[in-house]
Design goal:
Elements lengths: L5 E10 L2 E11 H8 L24 E5 L2 E4 L4 E4 L2 H4 L8 H13 L10 H14 L3 E5 L2 H18 L6 E5 L8 H6 L3 H4 L9 E4 L4 H10 L3 E6 L2 E2 L5 E2 L2 H14 L2 E5 L23 E4 L10 E5 L20 H16 L2 H20 L5 E7 L2 E6 L5 H8 L2 E2 L1 E3 L3 E4 L7 H16 L3
This protein binds pyridoxal-5'-phosphate (PLP).
Length: 434
Amino acid sequence: MNITLLSVQMVTVYRGGLPIRRHMSIVTGFEAATAAFLRFGGRARTMSALMQTYARLPVTFSHGQGVYIYDTEGRRYLDGISGIAVNGLGHSHPAVTAAIREQADKLVHTSNLYRIEAQEDLGTALAQVAGMDSCFFGNSGAEANEAAIKIARLFGHNHGVKKPAIVVLEGAFHGRTLATLSATGNRKIQAGFEPLVAGFIRAPCNDIEALQQIATNNPDVVAFLAEPIQGEGGVKPLSREYLQAARQICDHRNWLLMFDEVQTGNGRTGTYFAYQGLDVAPDVVTTAKGLGNGVPIGACLARGAAAQVLGNSQHGSTFGGNPLACAAGLAVVKAIMDGELCTNAVAMGELIVKILLERLENTKQFKEIRGRGLMLGIELHKNCGELVKQGLDAGLLINVTDGKTVRLLPPLVINEQEAGELANGLADLILGFD
Ligand SMILES: Cc1ncc(COP(=O)(O)O)c(C=O)c1O
C-alpha cells in the first residue's frame, strides 16, 4: 500500500531581514510529516518527537543580524542572552560566516587521525591568548571540563595519588555528563543520576579558611576547579582575594588550579579570559560557548606540568577540533583580539549597569546587580521566572537563573543605543513586575 503524506505549509519570504510575502505551499513525504507536527505560523509545536529535556518558549527563530534576531513571523527581538553566551559576535557576523563558508567549500571534516591545519592554528592562537602551552579540542563545555578532570586525575596518579580528588564549589555548574554533573554543585541537576562519579569535594564559595581546612584534611586532593563567575548558579563572582588564595594553596600543595571559563571566556567579562582581569593564572582553563559563535567547539588548555599530562591515546574525540569548527573558532579569536570587543564589553556593561541602577535602585523589586563586562545578574527580591516570557512578548530575550536573578549576556558587539534599549526594556519589565 502506498501512503502519500500531504501537508499545507505557510512560507514566509524575507528580503533584507523583513518579511515581504507569505504564501501557501504544498509539501509531501518527509517534509509533510514534519510539517504536520508544526502549528501553522511556526510559533509553537503542538507535538514533537523530541525528548522533553527543555522547557522551550513558544517561539521559533528564522534569522538574525548583529544583536537582533527574528522569529518565523518576522517579529524582531533584541537578543540579551546570545544563545547563553554563545553568539558573542552577534548573529551572522560577516567574518565568521565567511570563514564557515570558505572552509565548508574546501573540507568540513577529516579526522584526528591526521594533522589538521586549522586546529593547529586555533590551538596556537588560543594558547597564546591564554598564556598556556597546549590545547585539546572537544565539542562542548562539558567535554572541555571532562578533559580537565581527566588531566587532574592523571596528574594525581602520576604523583602516586591512588584516589585523586578535585575540590569544587557549592553552586557551581560544569555540565551534564556524568563526571561534570557530579562536579556541579546543584542537587537538582544530579538527582536521579546516582551513583555520582566519586572524587569531588565540595567547598563553600569565597571561603579561604574552608579551602585551607579541606587542604589540611584531604591528602588526596590534586586540583581545584571553579568558574571565576558562576553563571548558571546566579552570576556570582568569586572574589579576587579568594582566587589568589586558591592559587597559593595550589602552589603549596601541588594542586592544579583549573578554571571553567566555558561561559566567562572569549571576551565576555572584558578580558579574553576572566582570570586575566583578576591577576590569577590557572594551570588549566576550559572554554566553549562563545568560541565558535554558534559552531560547536570546546577547548581545554593547560600550561607547565599540566600541559604534558595527556599522552597518546589517553583522550580523544571524533569531531573535536575539526576543520569547520576550528575555522569558525579562528575567526572568533581573531575578531576578539583584533577588534575593540573586550573594551566594548566593559563600556557597554557599565552603561547597562548605570541605567539599571538609575531606574531600579531603591525600588521594591531590586536587590542587587552583579557581574563584569557583559555578564550581568540582576537579583530581585522574589522569584522572577515569569519575566522571561514577558520579555519575549516585549521583544527582549533575557534569562532567569537561580530563581531570582535575571541574567544578561548580550553580544559583545552591542552598541550604546542597543545597550540603552536592553537596559531600559529590562527596567520597564522589572518595574511592572509585582
Ligand atoms: C560554566 C559552564 N561550564 C560548563 C557548561 C556546559 O557546557 P555545554 O552545555 O556546552 O556542555 C556550561 C553551560 O552552561 C557552563 O556555563
